[in-house]
Amino acid sequence: MVNVLRFTDVTYVRDRRPILDGIDWAVEDSERWVILGPNGAGKTTLMKLATANDYPTTGSVEVLDKRLGRVDIFELRNRIGFVSSATGRRIPASEKVRDLVLTAAYGVEGRWNEHYDDVDVRQAERILAEWDLGDYVDRAYGTLSDGERKRALIARAVMTDPEMLLLDEPSASLDLGARERLLQMLSGFARSPHSPAMIMVTHHVEEVPPGFTHALLLRDGQVQASGPITEALTAENLEATFGMPFELTVSNGRYAAVAKP
Ligand SMILES: Nc1ncnc2c1ncn2[C@@H]1O[C@H](COP(=O)(O)OP(=O)(O)OP(=O)(O)O)[C@@H](O)[C@H]1O
């Protein structure tokens, strides 16, 4: 087991307000974490630190064994796969799907005049096929549906064989079918021993892919619960996190929560 992420007493303060407050959290390479919490709880801020896109105000964040503030963050970011709605907005609409994945190997968005090796082209096409986009390699990114775009962005994120894959609300805005399809694929990916550590932010327990092993529940910048998913993702912890009582059910690894009448 290798530690890919370690937060020690992390505080992140803006406008004199603690947005993250005393966070202790560690992730190992075999773990798949889901992060839940109400709007404004600090989930995106946590992601920014975990992807080396910002620094804590106090405390320490170690990403892939390197302490933020003492390491070249550009070298570190090459070892991390990250998908968020902001990532998608940076992709030119005319970008071919194959190039979208291929350019990840060179850390650029939008193909210019780079030369790519055949081996990279084949790898990009293989990954696209794995994410069910084998027939879309010559399509422009802007012509894809939301669900197809999400899968294309994940394919791009895994192209560089990252040691950690972070997904910020990958199912947001997807229709039921597209969401279920994505969840099935994420579930399969999560269960593969060859996959990197995974961390996924979501607003809904229904979107937790089976195979995810751990959960972190955040409220007002503080950890309400954290640990193996069966211990952390409980009705009691959801109530403490969202401030209302829930009935929580689990069936075939899928969670569902409704407010108690
Ligand atoms: N740079 C900043 N300056 C001031 N306030 C900030 C800054 N970044 C985040 N915040 C505030 O910190 C709080 C947490 O924001 P964050 O985006 O991390 O929450 P979140 O859990 O991801 O929310 P959501 O579920 O709505 O996406 C919010 O109240 C936000 O307005």
TrEMBL record:
Residues 5-245 form the ABC transporter domain. Keywords: ATP-binding, Nucleotide-binding. It holds the Pfam family ABC_tran. SUPFAM superfamilies: P-loop containing nucleoside triphosphate hydrolases. InterPro entries: AAA+_ATPase, ABC_transporter-like_ATP-bd, P-loop_NTPase. The keyword Nucleotide-binding applies. This is ABC transporter ATP-binding protein. It comes from Leucobacter muris. The lineage of its organism: Bacteria, Bacillati, Actinomycetota, Actinomycetes, Micrococcales.
